[in-house]
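Input chain follows. Return structure tokens only.
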Amino acid sequence: MQEGTFKSGFCAIIGRPNVGKSTLMNHLIGQKIAITSKKAQTTRNRIQTVFTDEEAQIVFLDTPGINRAKNKLGTYMVNVAENTLSEVDAVLWVVEATNYVGAGEQHILELLKKVKTPVILVINKIDTVDEAGIAEAITTYKDLAEFAAVVPVSALKDDNTNTLLSVLKQEMPKGPMYFDPDTLTDQPERQIAAEMVREQALRLLDAEIPHGIAVVIDRMKERPDGRLVDIDATIICERDSHKGIIIGKQGAMLKKIGTGARKSIEALLGLKVNLKLWVKVKKNWRDSDTLLKNFGYHEDE
């Protein structure tokens, strides 16, 4: 690290739901912290992760997808994403490699016009189109706003993400490290563990059910010999019928969710995990201010 030339700053990753923001962030920092799935509302909180090398430290804020809110949880998510824009040194706006600019993108464009933060346009999923398709997407978007740069990437294939990092470093101000070099996230392990259970539910359950799911870690304790962590977690859903589906025939679905989550949590902690799951019904929790706070959605943060 060279004194006086080191750069450090904050970068928000924004975009409409399901454009690959969390996958991109995981690749930029080199480890899975944010959960991913093909369903909307995968990211609900603002997740802070940290990239550090010899030249710079960049603190990434992976925000919930920006779209029209349908309930209090949706309003919370949109507010978290929009409020982040004025707090950072740069914004990565992630869009898909397409020549169509939808209503979701138009809404984000209007938000970006109100901020003075440098915006880097990231055209993601270039692995799904040919070179002509990439060129078409760049042409479609490049003149819609004043972008600091336009960078095509494939977050899924980790293609051109190093170029994106180089471009991003140029936008960071000179300054000291905010975190120790080995810090990857400000998220407590309990919260990441809860999210990894929710990730499996998102991947395995039918489309509508995961939107009404929250996960609470009731207990997380390492055993005295340091070889195993006991975790008790409760999956919250909104309807009795959903509870039956989550548990599945003879508990098969719940077991499947638990097995997938346990493997992810073990990879994160580097320890064996004994994971026990329960399912509870809390009707309409997504419209309850009290339950939203109980389940970890605090807008004042």
